[in-house]
Design brief:
This protein has 8 helices and no strands. With 147 residues, the chain is mostly helical. It has 2 domains: 57 residues; 80 residues, NusB-like (N-utilizing Substance Protein B Homolog, Chain A), CATH 1.10.940.10. The model has no long low-confidence stretch (mean pLDDT 94).
Length: 147
């Protein structure tokens, strides 16, 4: 499992948290062999557990996004000009949260994080959503990220 796969797994977990209200630790408890085996037939992503080298990223990303939800949603609301945050798809919000968190707190290079966010939105949302996410992340980076 590479970083892209682990990032997708993080998206699945924070998306689940969007529905269940579970926090980081509760979501991370689901990263286990039994849970993965039950989902593997439906999602090939769950064919293996993340390797040890990627688990720290997974832990930090899931816990951090869930811990910083109000802050991240504030950025989304600020840069989604003319859109109420409730109108943004849940998966789109989760992708935005993850990318913003990666950039602000994990030191992931801006270009890499934005590119990965766009790949995820193309896979899980509509083509229009990719332009929307790109625009929000572009504005966010210009205003909030120091060169």
């Amino acid at each position: 499992m590479n970083r892209r796969d682990v990032r997708e797994l993080v998206l699945h977990l924070i998306f689940e948290g969007e529905y269940t209200g579970e926090k980081g630790g509760e979501l991370l408890a689901q990263v286990n062999g039994e849970r993965f085996a039950s989902l593997e037939a439906e999602y090939p992503l769950y064919g293996e557990l993340p390797p040890e080298g990627q688990r720290e990223y997974l832990r930090r990303a899931v816990s951090g996004v869930m811990e910083h939800l109000p802050e991240l949603d504030g950025y989304i609301a600020k840069y989604a000009v003319g859109w109420d945050i409730s109108r943004i798809s849940r998966v789109g919000k989760c992708i935005l949260r993850l990318s913003m968190y990666e950039i602000l707190y994990l030191g992931i290079p801006v270009g890499a994080s934005v590119n990965e966010a766009l790949e995820l939105v193309k896979k899980y949302d509509s083509p229009e959503a990719a332009s929307f996410v790109n625009g929000i992340l572009g504005s966010f980076v210009k205003q909030e990220v120091q060169p």
